[in-house]
């Protein structure tokens, strides 16, 4: 026994849960005891949901989203605007934009950012697929919704260069003051960008 | 869609994971994406481990420990000292004492503490079972390893009164300076208790 429950089954469950982001050994032990106490309401449904996910979840071959169907629900939704493709780094970014209902267009998940130091080049991301989709005459705008980090912006510039030949319109998210944000807590770069992009009141 | 993934299966998985202690909606979303990326190494094993736990985990009818067998591995281990029973509030406390290899005796999990305000009385805890076990002539010592909280100590006093008639020896964990602890950060009660219980050097 290497420091957890007194049964090997529970030990294994604790070790697996402890590998989830945001959980460590201590919180995994608490989670397991909580699961055992809530057997009907939580343990059984969670086991079923995980088994269903393991069996059915797939990656959309068009946009890189995760779903139980391929193409995903967004790619196959006729109400979606086929003319715009919103490019994100990760599926979590796609989810965030969907929660905000920020776009009615389609998505394209890159799967990360260019990072030569980590050995991540253009071939490791879904960039060639994006160029192919952008070549479709029905697509008129590519929105680069990558993170405002050095890696994100580097990737955005690289993609913009490649898209230049296709003639498609390339846009990016605005920089500015977060809604509800206080100026005093903002960094200089954001304040300067918000000032440059000021709009009529 | 109430703010998570774009598929109902993933939405349900996120909602279930978010109900674990230590996880919220955001970390549950991260956990699900992590699980999908680590399908073979984490998602499938975790689904199996949860299903196995749901099927096999039971509560030891003797001591209240959780295990896949009843009586549990500790209660049925012949190398364990049958003469001492260590009383704890929760299974997590039992696990902590086992990790510390603090006792070679048996355990008794109360399942909580007396708490009149929350409507938890003696009948809601495994106290009658404990009195029954303490009446066994083979048992010579009851170690009260409850938390050093008001509720824990109240429960300890209640149990001690009940055990008085059995004539069994009742002990409790020592108060004192935690190993590796700094005096300057300790509360007055602990320092005073450590001074009272000082030992020859």
TrEMBL record, chains A, B:
By its UniProt entry, which PROSITE patterns does this protein fall under? RECR, TOPRIM
Query: Which SUPFAM superfamilies does the annotation name?
Result: Recombination protein RecR
Q: Which UniProt keywords apply?
A: DNA damage, DNA recombination, DNA repair, Metal-binding, Zinc, Zinc-finger
Name the source's superkingdom: Bacteria
Q: Where are the zinc fingers (C4-type)?
A: 60-75
Q: Name one GO biological process term.
A: DNA repair
Q: Which Gene3D superfamilies match?
A: 3.40.1360.10, 6.10.250.240, RecR Domain 1 (1.10.8.420)
Tell me where in this chain the Toprim domain is found: 83-178
- Pfam family for this entry, one: RecR_HhH
A single Gene Ontology MF term assigned here is:
zinc ion binding
Tell me the protein family, please: Belongs to the RecR family.
Q: Which HAMAP family match?
A: RecR
Q: What does this protein do?
A: May play a role in DNA repair. It seems to be involved in an RecBC-independent recombinational process of DNA repair. It may act with RecF and RecO.
User: What NCBIfam families does the record tag this protein with?
Assistant: recR
This protein is called: Recombination protein RecR
* Species assigned in the record: Microbaculum marinum
């Amino acid at each position: 026994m290497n420091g957890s429950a007194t049964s090997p089954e529970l030990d294994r469950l604790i070790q697996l849960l402890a590998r989830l982001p945001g959980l460590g050994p201590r919180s995994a032990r608490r989670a397991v005891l909580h699961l055992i106490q809530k057997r009907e309401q939580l343990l059984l449904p969670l086991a079923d949901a995980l088994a269903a996910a393991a069996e059915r979840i797939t990656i959309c071959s068009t946009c890189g989203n995760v779903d139980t169907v391929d193409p995903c629900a967004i790619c196959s939704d006729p109400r979606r605007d086929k003319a715009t493709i919103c490019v994100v780094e990760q599926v979590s970014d796609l989810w965030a934009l969907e929660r905000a209902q920020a776009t009615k267009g389609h998505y394209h998940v890159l799967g990360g950012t260019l990072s030569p130091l980590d050995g991540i080049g253009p071939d490791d991301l879904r960039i060639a697929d994006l160029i192919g989709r952008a070549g479709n005459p029905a697509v008129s705008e590519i929105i680069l919704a990558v993170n405002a980090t050095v890696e994100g912006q580097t990737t955005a510039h690289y993609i913009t260069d490649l898209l230049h030949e296709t003639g498609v319109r390339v846009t990016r998210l605005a920089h500015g003051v977060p809604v509800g944000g206080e100026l005093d807590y903002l960094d200089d770069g954001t304040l300067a960008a918000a000032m440059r992009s000021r709009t009529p009141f």
